[in-house]
Amino acid sequence: MAYRKLGRDTSARKALFRSMLTSFFAYERIETTEAKAKEISGLADKMITLAKRGDLHARRQVLSSLYDEEVVKKLFDVIAPKYAERQGGYTRVLKLGPRRGDAAPMAIIELV
């Protein structure tokens, strides 16, 4: 299998990723479990690559994956221009250690 199921069915997993991506681009860094951070990393890179294209079709594709139009505006107007010269690798996953409640491995995902 090429992806992590994270103990959820397809619709719940997609909703989780949409929510996390929206938060990620709004705050430019979030703390989550290691597995979720690794999954979000690839999706975030795809969104930034689309935003770098900057055309209407790319904007509509990104809008279908994110919840907040203000975040899409920020992605296209602020975040994407920062990475105009960069060829991929826009995110970084930093491992933190176990979570106190259930010892799940935690990580921070942030923009490079």
TrEMBL record:
Record's keyword terms, sorted: Ribonucleoprotein, Ribosomal protein
Gene Ontology biological process: translation
UniProt-recorded Gene Ontology molecular function terms: structural constituent of ribosome
Organism superkingdom: Bacteria
GO cellular component, one term: cytosolic large ribosomal subunit
Record's keyword annotation contains Ion transport: no
A Pfam cross-reference name: Ribosomal_L17
Subunit organization: Part of the 50S ribosomal subunit. Contacts protein L32.
Family stated for the protein in its record: Belongs to the bacterial ribosomal protein bL17 family.
Name of the featured protein: Large ribosomal subunit protein bL17
Organism: Sporomusa malonica
